[in-house]
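Researcher: Next sequence.
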Amino acid sequence: MNDSKPDMTESLMKALQYSGLEKENLADIVKILIVLDVTPAKVFPIGLSPDGVVAQYLLNREQLGSFFESVIEAPRVQGFKVFPKGLDASTQFFTEVEIR
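Model: Next structure:
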């Protein structure tokens, strides 16, 4: 488990404070990202009048299975993409989670 959840919450709220998301929606989305228990590399708003976020992660092979399970159980997930990083048997994966 991630011991720095308050730090992660604060950094996500700060990163998205000018995103145009409604405060209540933003708070709900941040809670969902905290439940995923991996700090995203990037988070940015999506939509013409923003109503969600895309969170990008760089995961290793060991993290991918448990992360996938937590994404399946998370509410409001609209999309999940996984791309291997590298050409041969990849040990790292670039993932995107869309939450609306």
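Model: The longest strand covers residues 52-60. The radius of gyration is 14 Å.
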